[in-house]
Amino acid sequence: MTSNIPVTYQEVFKTDKGVVYQCDATHRLILEFWDTHTQFSARDFTHFRRMVETVDIRQMALSTAAEHDVEILALPRSERCYVLTLCEIVHLRELLSGARLMLELNSMLRECGCTVAE
Amino acid sequence: MKDLARLRTAIKESVELALNQQIQMELTASSKYLAMAGWCDRMGYDYSAGFFYKQSEEERKHGMKLFHYLCDQGATAYSPEIPAVNQEYDSLRSVFEAVLEQEIAVTDSINRIIAICRRENDFATEELLKWYVKEQMEEEYIARRCLDLIDQIPADQVYYLDKKLSSVTYEDNVFE
């Protein structure tokens, strides 16, 4: 998962199931989740995170209908989509929430005139 | 590490979400006023109908002002879903009672967003919202004054009441 990482990629947050990088050269956030690799603009990353956060996992957990077994999330400006089970959504939420926290921390540090060691 | 979100926009996510909710509130208010205008038209309250048609347009402009602000600042503005609104009312009084409740809800919402702006040190958005604070003071005044007139003008003078309600304005804005 983390082999052959371009030198411009900086790790933002990592879990057992995936990792989020930031590339300052292209102004992209890169999501590696299981075997997928997706690049986002900052705006699309936020949009995608909100999509994942608003999935009704309670309904997925309680419903016996087949349509609630998976959630299909269309990626912004892409022909691809994620088809995720309940467990995958929980793992993805953990990853994206952690990345959000680190990005906010980076923002706060910059406002204070500090920078994260590179 | 670059702050990519900050490079894109000065508006924090919490403020962006709150402003998008406010856009929905303003456009829902526009829809409510349009329904009130339609009801007044059906009931023969032509002057009040005119008043509400104008109010409906104003509420839409309020929403669009926020929409353009978000777009201009590099944030994301969403075209909101407008829920179904009440189309029927019991009386002219019940219409204006609904107006006052609506305006109070908008004032409270604007105040909440200003509190978020202060928490996030978003002084530009707070400056924009000051215009809405003044506007809401006027709107609440007009709604209360209309309810006063409904109490003061005898029930058999319907034409006069209708005409008088549509002419209520707030001329002496203390902020201007």
TrEMBL record, chain A:
This is Uncharacterized protein. It comes from Spirosoma profusum.
Automatic annotation (TrEMBL), chain B:
It comes from the Bacteria. Coiled coil: none annotated. Fe cation binds at E26, E59, H62, E103, Q136. Its EC number is 1.16.3.2. Iron-storage protein. Belongs to the ferritin family. Prokaryotic subfamily. This is Ferritin. It comes from Spirosoma profusum.
